[in-house]
Structures are given as structure tokens and as C-alpha cells.
């Protein structure tokens, strides 16, 4: 037998996790559940497995920072702050944000991949009238902040930044 299973949207996975945690009396932060739902990648079974790991890793509590460490994910807020500084053409702020990303111990390839993902989302927002509503992986404030970048930067600038980022990922292994 072969089952063709559809992916479950991240918001439904997050809601199910929240209901389970509430029934079990386990405290959880909203951003932690969002990260776990995204990491589940459409599979409730994988999401529940990750949730179980997060409970154990967080010693009975599901916290955003603990989940980030567990998953090895990038702090999207720092990467988004970098994108905002670049879009504002504020070189000093951009360099400060780059230093924060590097000093935080984030995997630079993962941070650059996250930045490219954000640039892609901005390009979609600029091209499609309601492009931000389609992306269910964004937290509410991330969508608002990316919309501000989309309104602030030109489409050509976003495309150029994306191309630079793609080339940068290729060159990252050789960079000092």
C-alpha cells in the first residue's frame, strides 16, 4: 500500500501542539511552538517527536531559546535586523548586525540561507499584491517587518542583494 499524505499547514501543527501541552499542563512560549511547527515540515508525527525532545531538552518547559539551540536554527530576528539595516542603506547598522550574527555563534551558512529566504519573501511581496498572506511560516511581526522592507527597497535592489547572497553562499567556504 502507498499512502499519498498531504502536508499539514504549520499553524495547524502549532495549534495541535498547544492543545496537547495545555492538556498536559506544560508551559510553552509561542515562538517555540512556531519554530517546532516549522521544523515539522508538514508532518504532525515529526512535530510531536520534536515537541517531546523539546520538553526533555527544556526540562519540562518549552522555551524559544531552548528550541533554537536544540534545532540549531538561526535567530531570525537578528537576520531580519540585518536585512532592515541593509534596506535602509545604513552601513554602520548593517556592520553592527553582521558582528552580532557572527558573535552569536550562528552558523554563517544557515544565517545567509535565512537571509536569502527573507529576500525571496520580500521579492514575492513586491511582485504579488497579497504575497505576504501566502507565507504561513512567518510570525506576525516578521510579516510586518518584511512588508516594510518590501516597501522601502526597490525590486532591483532586492534582486541584486539576492544574487550577491547566492554568490556569497558559494564563496563562503573560501572566505576568511
What distance separates the N and C termini? 52 Å
Helix percentage range? over 70%
Mean pLDDT: 87
Question: How many helices?
Answer: 10
Q: Tell me about the biggest sheet?
A: none
- What is the overall shape? globular
Number of strands: 0
Structural class by secondary-structure content: mainly alpha
Uncertain stretches of 5 or more adjacent residues: none
Q: How much strand?
A: under 5%
Order of helices and strands: HHHHHHHHHH
Instruction: Give Rg in angstroms.
Output: 18 Å
Plain-language structure description:
Helices cover 72% and strands 0% of the residues. With 176 residues, the protein is mostly helical. It is built from 10 helices and no strands. 27% of the residues are buried.
Question: Brief overview, please?
Answer:
With 176 residues, the protein is mainly α. It has helices at 10-24, 30-40, 44-57, 64-71, 76-87, 91-103, 108-127, 131-134, 140-152, 155-171. The relative contact order is 0.09.
Give the topology.
Blueprint: H1 10-24, H2 30-40, H3 44-57, H4 64-71, H5 76-87, H6 91-103, H7 108-127, H8 131-134, H9 140-152, H10 155-171
Features:
mainly alpha; 176 residues
